[in-house]
Structure formats: structure tokens, C-alpha cells
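Researcher: Hi, I'm a grad student and pretty new to this. My advisor asked me to get structures for two proteins we've been looking at. I'm not sure of the right format, so I'll just paste the first sequence and hope you can take it from there.
Model: That works fine. Here's the first sequence with its C-alpha cells right after it:
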Amino acid sequence: MVSIKSDREIELMRDAGKILALVHNEVADYIKPGLTTYEIDRFAEKIVKKHNATCSFYHLYDFPGNFCISINDEVIHGIPSKNVVIKDGDIIKIDGGVNYKGYQSDAARTHIVGSVSQEVRDLVERTKQAFFEGIKFAVPGNHINDISTGIEMYIEQFGYGIVEDYVGHGIGTKVHEDPEIPNFATTTKGIKIKKNMTFAVEPMVNLGTYEVFTADDNWTVKTCDGKASSHYENTIVITDNGPEILSLI
């Protein structure tokens, strides 16, 4: 069942989104070669706690970190580790959520570290743009598949692989709520979009194949061809005038 949020609930989600946006902005300035993904995770956690909030992903489905930190061909769900060191030429996906007074936000960013090929830079920028192309259709009266189709139509011109095994979702008091929001067109329209629905829209796009697999740690999802993957996500609320992005400041 898809929930319609009250104005008060949306305000709390707006607060959670602002905190998460601050985290992503500060992490962007913090990341550099030589840091471990564990250090990045702890840095982000401290910012969340400073704002009297908690990390939504901590122990969610028994996930062992505060944020998912995935590198290069890792798509999502990378476990922060003291043994994984950031290097020049890496792209780092930071995906996480903030729980503020019982309400959630969820957002992901892909960061470029140092000298990265133009091909990969384009992938990162186009994945981000795919989010904005998709949410153009996140308006009352449209359907979920309109968002999905908007994302696919933008991405398909570049020949990239759109991850199909993982999708966007509703969000509210739980990180993952109905409905699912694919990043590719489906044969069904999906639910009709209504004012005060809240979604996490998150294109996951691979430089090569769309196919992915889960590594031996039972968490980290990687591309099957070893090519780079990019991820961009925000929490949005549907208004009469279209989507408001809650996790950007």
C-alpha cells in the first residue's frame, strides 16, 4: 500500500533530507586518496549524529555499516572496510539514509577521485541527469512507469546498461515502502501518482552490461563485466507543482 503523507510528516522528512544532504556535501569535500571506506563511513556517521539523527542503513536487513560505499565496478551495497583504500582514478558511490524523529531520507552520490577517464566522467554525469529526466514525470495524475520510461529514454541513447535487479522505492517511516520504481520502462503503468506521496528515485547505470551479481560477502553488488557503475538518488515529495527534492540543499 502506498501512503499519502501529512504536511507534518513531510516536514519531518524534509528535515531528514536536509541532514542527509549535508552529509553528502561534507563527504564530497572529505574524500581523497589514502582514506579507507571505513573512515569515510565513520566520518558520515558523526555528521548524522551531530544533528540528533541516526543512520537508516545501520543494521537494516543486518547491513554491517552506516552507509553503503561501493567502488568502480561495485554497483551498490559495498560494506565499509578498513582494508579498502581509496585510490586516484576511483569512483566512489555513497548511498545512505537518515532517520530523523522516525522519518526517513535516502540519497546516493557518485564521487570522482582524481584522474578518471572521460568515458567514466560522462557515465557519472549522465546517471545524475537521468534522475532529473525521470522526475520530470513525477507529477499528480501520471503513473510510476512514466518516471521509469523517462529515465530509460534518456539513458538508452548512450548504450549503457540499466540495472534491473534493483529499483527505486517509496519511503516514509520505513526506508523501503511501496511502490517499486524501476529505472526502465515496464509493461504496466504502476500506481497513479498523487500529491504528498514520497519516493526515492535512484538510477543505477553501468558502462557496459546491465547484468550484476552479488559478491561473496553476500552484500556487494558488482557488474558482471567488471566495468564501472554509477548511482544517483534523491528523496522526493510530490506537490501540485511537481516534485520537490528533499535531499538537496
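Researcher: Oh nice, that was easy. Here's the second one.
Model: And its structure:
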Amino acid sequence: MKPDVVICLPARYQSTRLPGKPLLEIAGKPLIIWALESASKIDAKQMVVATDDERIAELVELSGYQAVMTSTEHLTGTDRIAEVARMLSWSDETIVVNYQGDEPLTPTANIQQLISALIDNPQAAIATLYQEITQYEYLINPNNVKLVTDDNDYALYFSRAAIPYSRECSDRRQLEKGIDYKHHIGLYAYRAKFLKDFSKLTPSKLEKSESLEQLRAMSCGYKIIAKQAKEPMPHGIDTPEDIVNFQNHL
């Protein structure tokens, strides 16, 4: 029997570049509602917004969706979702999709791919996606997280550095050497059992060094299955320019 699937959208009010981002109106509709409408296309038992702000919770509830108030102390979206997993008593086998509230154009096929990856790989606690890197400037930008995987698509490491390192050449010719460079997409699906355990884990030295929460899980031996995304991922909404691009897309 297939496990239940639930969708959780973490939505905090504070944002360095766009304060109050979930509430920003774009083409007459708040961003978080755009995301909820997009996430609604996925067949799931439950969909909930996890927020630390009453204004966001009120808007979500008034729009006919479910919201859960969470702590203001969470450092990551995974920690926030972990609190919801405990509060709503999701069974250990439940698959929890972390749907980014600022990425309303996320292809449904990619979310389905995440869910299938976790169902098909029982040893994995987490499923995530990546895209091929084809531009050198993208490869060396520390804001773009890279990963390496084994022959069975399990993640070996995530880094802001260009990995794997090419000993033969360290310049832009790296992309011409046939090395597969993978850009990590911040989409996740988790088993609820993992989420309940994750919040009890102490941030590892690797997580602190790279500022990447998935390294906390890997440092404790949890396996992450990583698949190449079926469809290109559009850019999320982080800047005023992103808002304009989203409006143009609409």
C-alpha cells in the first residue's frame, strides 16, 4: 500500500530582500496564494502552510486553506516542517513534500518525481532534484549549490564549491572535460519519521561550514536520493525583478 502524501509550504514573514514576501500582491493575488493554487494540482491527502506570522495564517485561512502557527526560532524550513509533522501527528510512513512558497511556477511533474523517488527507494529518508550545470559562471557561484552522487543516485556530498574538483584543469575548461556538474534544486520530500528525528539533531560542523541544512542529515547517516529534474525549474521570487518576470509569465 502506498503511503499518504502531504504537502507543507513553509512561509515566514521575514525576508532580507523582500520583507513580508508571502503577502506581496502580484497581479492581484498574494504570492502564498499563487503557490497554494499551484500546489493544489498535486494529489495529496493534506496541504498546510507552516508560518510564524499571524497575518499569513489569517490570509491562508480566509482563502480556504489550512495554516499552522509554528515557532519563530526555526533556522530552516525543514525545522519548521518538522514541527508541523509532530503537531499534526503524521504517521512515520507519510511522505511530506516541502513546497516552496516563493516558487509558484514549480512544475507538477518535478513534485511527482520527488514523491516517486522516495517511494521507489525505501532506504532514502529524503528525495531531492538537480539540474545539469552548463555555464562556468554558474559553476563557480557559491550561491548555486552543487552535489555529487553515487552510481545509484544517492547523494555523496553537497557544497557551494565546484564539485567534483578537476585535477587536470581548474579553469572554465572543466565543463569541456565531460564532468557531470549538478546544480541542486531546493525541492525536498521527506519521510515523516525522518522529520520527527531531524529537529532533535544538532547542526553538524559541515552544515555550519557550508550553511546547508541537508548536511546535518547526511552527517548523521541519513540517505538522500537525488534525481535529475524532468522539467527545468523556473527561478523563484527573491527580488523585485523576479516579481516583474513572474507577472510577464502570467
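Researcher: Is there anything I should tell my advisor about the second?
Model: You could mention this: The first strand starts at residue 5 and ends at 11.
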